[in-house]
Amino acid sequence: MGIDANSYSWVSIPAGFNSSEANPLLVPSPGTNTYILSINSGTCVVKETVNIYVYNPPLANAGPERIACLPYGASIGTPAVTNTT
Fold first, then answer.
1. Considering the domain boundaries, does residue 80 fall inside one?
2. Which of 40, 10, 42, 36 is closest to 23 using CA atoms?
3. Is pLDDT larger for residue 57 or for residue 1?
4. Which pTM value belongs to this model?
5. Is residue 44 part of a domain?
6. Cis-peptide into 58, omega within 30 deg
7. Is residue 45 assigned to a domain?
8. Can you give the residue range of the structural domain that contains 16?
9. What is the largest CA-CA distance in the chain?
10. How confident is the model at residue 76 (pLDDT cuts 50, 70, 90)?
11. Count of structural domains within the chain
């Protein structure tokens, strides 16, 4: 493996996150998350904008509680909620 001579700078918009690692661990919030990455090779600087979109997870609803006795089963579930996936 070669040695990476580049330096890295990650910052979030709005402010709150920054890192000098090449591959930082990001924990974005639901919604749009914007990060600016600057890579400095010593002779030039490259800046890129990274947008990460995080959607809220769908809500699961199995319906009301039911008792299932063998050998009979019970159906569970509710109609799907539109525009949640």
1. no
2. 10
3. 57
4. 0.62
5. yes
6. no
7. yes
8. 7-54
9. 74
10. confident
11. 1
